Amino acid sequence: MCYRVTELQWNFATNLTEPNKKRMVDAQGLQTKLERVSWQKAITFSWSLLGDPQAVRQFRLIAAKGRPALPEHRLAELQKIIQEMKDIYNKAKVCPYLPSMSPYCDLSLEPDLTRTMAHSRSFEEQLHAWRSWRDAVGPKVKEKFFRYVDLANEAAKLMGYRDAGEQERALYGVVDLESQVSEVWTSAAPLYRQLHAFVRSRLRKHYAPHRISPTAPIPAHLLGNMWAQNWKNILDLVLPFPGKRRADVTPEMLRQGYTPHRMVQTADEFFTSLGLKPMPVEFWLKSLIERPPDRPVACKASAWDFCNRRDYRIKQCIEVTMEDLLTLHHEMTHIEYYLQYADQPHLFRDGANPAFHEAISDAIGLSVITPRHMHRIGLLNNITDDYETDINFLMEMALDRIAYLPFAYIVDQWRWKVFAEGGLRNSVNSAWWELRVWHQGLIPPVARSENDFDPGAKYHIIADQPYIRYFIGLVLQFQIHEALCRVAGHIGTLHTCDIYRSREAGRLLSEIMSAGNSRPWPEILRMATRGATDKLDARPLLEYFKPLSLWLRVANRDEMIGWVTTDQDTGMTNFLNIIKIVISNNIKYFLPFLNLRENKTYSNV
Ligand SMILES: *[C@@H]1O[C@H](CO)[C@@H](O)[C@H](O)[C@H]1NC(C)=O
Ligand SMILES: [Zn+2]
């Protein structure tokens, strides 16, 4: 069944026609039916008494996964609602900023609004994109979303969970997931606030200072991204040392006549240099590595496991650029993971937890992106690793990953609260903004109310896709990178480590990957770190960014670190309780007063 469904998904993704879509949807319907039957059989059988722990683990996976306990018509309703929300999201159109740009209101998120958020440096134009996207989606999905919450909760309860949030957390199989996650965020937040203060000061220089207060949260529409989740698009505004960017090896790749096929060979050689498996015959025969001229395809890069232990493919419309070379290594790391756990039973052919696949792929990326690696594969002549270039590079990485941390954290904080409280109908938008202000230090650029539904303007929320995995993956990738670098014998700062050609690193990777999901992930993490820890840990991430955080502390010496909000600069006191967060310049502590009127204080942030 897995093979059949995957094959039809592939046929559709690489040839977007209606007949292909129909075949895929039909097969997915059959798969849902099979899962329901499997679940029904599993729960009537007292598998917990079996002597074989691996068998028990497999039964538990069958019994806990998905929503098979929901009666068929309810499940159909749930799936229909999710599809309707996705359709609203995918088809939403907005008007241009100036009517003179086009008389038609036909701008969509991709590519138009995304491009505006990334490249426009006009306060008003970005505001227009920010506001119209939320107007176009939020209110339209809101009622559907509440119905979705009810049905998801009902399914979770039938499966023995308190609510759908608890069901999502159960995928990790550890009882202290929430405290692990919040402790990691607490440790990483001081670095985030340094980055935040620096970016705020640079934004004040670029936009008129009266638009952005030096002590307030940053208006949420100025960070180069629709959700302010990734700030790399404003690198030009915040680059510490202009003119000292790291070399992009794209021109060198072109000069050497690289092709997509040769790029795949380069990435393949990365794995064999570690003593890991080469890509198999089917991979070379059937992968899609260039945009076909004759038909529409979904070009988003992805890696595929066809479940038959033979067929593994990637799909990526490769252009000869450094960025695509990095993406390719990322996708092919997924394939290597598939190959490593191929001998496990079907149910264990998966990441050790829902974050592991991405974490390992990104950990490999941390090696590949180093100048040392580009030099070793002959794409960079001399490594110019001076201090200023290094800080610029770490800033770029921080805009990509440190800026993302609080966003990746709050999405499910919000969602779990909504699930736990059965919808949170009267304060669902203010609950979102409380988290945005508190953790991200962002304020909405225009007044919001409960008529808006801003979380609905994020795809993963309306598409029923869990999010905490991105936060966990962000942290784990540095833990894994550090573990690999240690066995590889790397000496020096963590951000310069490249594990290329290290058989020791390859052996450790193989140990981690070949276990698949057959063992609890804390065990695998303990093994990977040679006994050091079995928990999420922000230390390696902080270690990686250490040179930058030292630099930021000096650069921010005249800045207030943190943010205070007042009635004037939020414009949302009509619905949001005043939040005051004051962080001293040197000592990191909060004087938070949430719900001032009720005189309630929170200190655990
Ligand atoms: C694309 O799919 C259609 C069926 O909808 C099929 O007839 C056609 O041969 C496919 N094209 C390729 C290149 O596979
Ligand atoms: Zn990936």
From TrEMBL:
Glycans are attached at N15. GO terms for biological process: proteolysis. Pfam families: Peptidase_M2. The keyword DNA damage does not apply. InterPro entries: Peptidase_M2. The keyword Protease applies. Chloride binds at Y172, R469. Keywords: Carboxypeptidase, Disulfide bond, Glycoprotein, Hydrolase, Metal-binding, Metalloprotease, Protease, Signal, Zinc. Its cofactor is Zn(2+). CDD domains: M2_ACE (cd06461). Binds 1 zinc ion per subunit. Its EC number is 3.4.-.-. The active site is at E331, H460. GO terms for molecular function: carboxypeptidase activity; metal ion binding; metallopeptidase activity. Disulfide bonds join C95-C105, C299-C317, C485-C497. Zn(2+) 2 binds at H330, H334, E358. It is an enzyme of class 3 (hydrolase). Zn(2+) 1 binds at H330, H334, E358. PANTHER family: ANGIOTENSIN-CONVERTING ENZYME. Belongs to the peptidase M2 family. This is Angiotensin-converting enzyme. It comes from Ranatra chinensis.
